[in-house]
Specification:
The structure holds two protein chains of two kinds. Chain A is an all-alpha fold. Chain A has one domain. Helices cover 65% and strands 3% of the residues of chain A. In chain A, the strands form two sheets. A two-stranded antiparallel sheet of chain A has the order 1-2. In chain A, strands 3-4 form a two-stranded antiparallel sheet. In chain A, a hairpin with a 2-residue loop joins strand 1 (101-102) and strand 2. In chain A, helix 3 runs parallel beside helix 11 (248-273), helix 5 (126-136) runs antiparallel to helix 6 and helix 7 (165-171) runs parallel beside helix 13 (336-364). Chain B has two domains: 11-42; 52-175, Alpha-Beta Plaits (2-Layer Sandwich), CATH 3.30.70.3270. Helix content of chain B is 23%, strand content 14%. Chain B has a three-stranded antiparallel sheet with strand order 2-3-5. Chain B has a two-stranded antiparallel ribbon with strand order 1-4. Classes of the chains: A mainly alpha, B alpha+beta.
Chain lengths: 367, 176
């Protein structure tokens, strides 16, 4: 272990954490503003210009509130649960490549070869926070919320895992940087325009990829407890579900952990299906072809390219977050049996068949 | 008796739900777009934008005492408003004008005139009953204060709200 590696990694962790925490705060703000606009209201517009300082006011409110622990809870687990809800969501971001290179450093904190398996392993730990919160609160509604959450996670993690298999059949690697590299050479998974784009097999393969994308996105909705799948919270039926007994910053950790999980989910979707940090730019020099910027240039070009890639990645993530918000304020909540049926009877089967379709296409149309 | 409710048969397009979901998302997007472009009417932005200019002529706001053109308080402390006031918000302490006063012919004036704005119900009966046309309901509606004491309008405050009223009864003029 050399000091250079450790120091640069720490710097990257600090920078990514700062960006993601900022993004999280403003996604809460965006949630409130966009929902207001969708419902013909204005939303929070009082704190600062256009309400842009609202997240800071919210943070102060959470921090300054009395930190109350009810008498009937299991103290140790009650305190542990909010941490367990927050930590896995942030940890997952370690393997996501959020840019190409900057100052010659790869813009990913840990480029490990198990890539997406690590994501699944850590992301599914997030359910422990909810289940433990529901159980340790020692009252009815949180308990129901926790139980619902665990069964929901089990049913949707299956289709989540199965939906990405076509991607790995195609790329042959689990390393997320390699998946991005593949998409730069051969075009994004759901829109393969780059490279040898006249190949019919590639377009046939885009169909299972699109199905994978849809199933994966819906499973991410369920995984992050977003409406239409927010059964564990279900304000109207479970009065807040697993975090009914929580207040002040402990509730804040659950709440923000959910938004971090959303950001993580969106980054995984962007990396797997939407080309990661890559943005194709049409070029006419020497016949029409696609080119792109990255951080490999000399001097300021390299730095500008690296920063541009990071901006591209986060722009894609923000667009996906807006879609998450848009869906939330459009669709009503599923009934519990409908949710289970959807998970086990539809998405599981669709994802399974999709793997075979992708495999057959790969076998008959070698790329 | 149990009643079997017949459920509507859905065709395949309705059964996969996706067209309906996309339709719903288009509706919410249209609302979003219209709000962004400012085509939707929204509520008035209160402290910046007030409805003072839209207020009708007959609006009944806070009651106030008025002065006449020569600066005399029109009120002669007859206490009719105190008597009529349904929530008993008005308290008057009448006083006698000294003999050398410019308006000594009028004889009486209010020494103290308090209206408790926590009690006031803005009914306008004081204005209706006043024989001197000395008390009017003005258009002030944002009456606020941090304490109960602050919410009691005394004579000075009432005169400040009322200002000078022109025209109408001037029956004391020739006797002044």
């Amino acid at each position: 272990m050399d000091y250079f590696y450790i120091l640069t990694s720490l710097a990257k962790i600090a920078a990514l954490l700062a960006v993601v925490l900022g993004l999280m705060n403003y996604s809460v703000y965006a949630e409130r503003r966009v929902s207001a606009l969708i419902q013909d209201r204005l939303g929070p517009n009082r704190v600062g210009p256009a309400g842009l300082l609202q997240p800071i006011a919210d943070a102060f409110k959470f921090l300054l509130k009395e930190d109350f622990t009810p008498g009937h809870v299991n103290k140790f687990y009650y305190w542990l649960a909010p941490c367990l809800a927050m930590i896995p969501a942030i940890t997952t971001l370690a393997v996501v490549p959020f840019g190409s290179t900057l100052f010659g450093l790869p813009m990913v904190i840990a480029d490990i070869n198990v890539g997406v398996l690590f994501v699944f392993a850590i992301a599914s730990l997030g359910v422990y926070g909810i289940v433990i919160a529901g159980w340790s609160s020692n009252s009815k509604y949180p308990f129901l919320g926790g139980v619902r959450s665990s069964s929901q996670m089990i049913s949707y993690e299956l289709s989540l895992g199965l939906a990405v298999i076509p991607v790995f059949l195609l790329v042959g690697q689990l390393r997320l940087t390699e998946i991005v590299r593949y998409q730069i050479e051969h075009g994004w998974m759901i829109a393969p325009f780059i490279g040898d784009w006249m190949n019919i097999g590639k377009w046939l393969l885009a169909v299972p990829m699109l199905i994978s994308f849809v199933v994966f996105t819906i499973a991410i909705f369920a995984e992050t407890n977003r409406l239409p799948f927010d059964l564990p919270e279900a304000e109207t039926e479970l009065v807040g579900g697993y975090h009914t007994e929580y207040g002040s910053m402990k509730f804040g950790l659950f709440f923000l952990g959910e938004y971090i999980a959303m950001i993580t989910g969106a980054s995984i979707i962007v990396t797997l299906f939407l080309g990661g940090w890559h943005l194709p730019i049409p070029s006419l020099a020497g016949g029409f072809h696609w080119t792109y910027f990255d951080g490999s240039g000399e001097g300021w070009r390299g730095i500008a390219g690296g920063l541009f890639n990071i901006a591209t990645f986060f722009a894609k993530v923000i667009l996906l977050l807006l879609v998450f918000i848009w869906v939330r304020w459009t669709l009503p909540r599923f009934r519990y049996d409908q949710l289970m049926r959807l998970g086990w009877v539809f998405f599981f089967e669709i994802a399974l068949v999709n793997i075979f379709v992708a495999a057959i296409i790969l076998a008959y149309f070698p790329l | 008796m149990a009643l079997t409710v017949s459920r509507p048969k859905l065709n395949w397009k309705e059964r996969i739900y996706l067209p309906a979901i996309l339709g719903g998302m288009m509706i919410t997007f249209r609302h979003f777009k219209n709000m962004l472009l400012g085509r939707t009417k929204v509520t008035m932005q209160y402290p910046e934008e007030k409805w003072d200019s839209y207020m009708p002529e007959h609006y009944r706001g806070a009651p106030a005492l008025v002065r006449d053109l020569s600066g005399r308080i029109r009120c002669v402390a007859c206490q009719l408003c105190e008597f009529i006031c349904p929530p008993r918000a008005i308290k008057i302490v009448p006083g006698e004008l000294p003999g050398d006063d410019k308006f000594a012919k009028v004889e009486k004036y209010p020494d103290e005139f308090d209206i408790d704005m926590i009690r006031c119900i803005y009914c306008g009966m004081c204005e209706e009953v006043c024989p001197e046309q000395a008390i009017y309901l003005r258009k002030d509606y944002a009456i606020t204060g941090f304490t109960r004491e602050e919410m009691v309008h005394d004579k000075a405050k009432l005169l400040e709200l009322g200002g000078v009223m022109e025209g109408v009864v001037l029956k004391w003029n020739e006797k002044k």
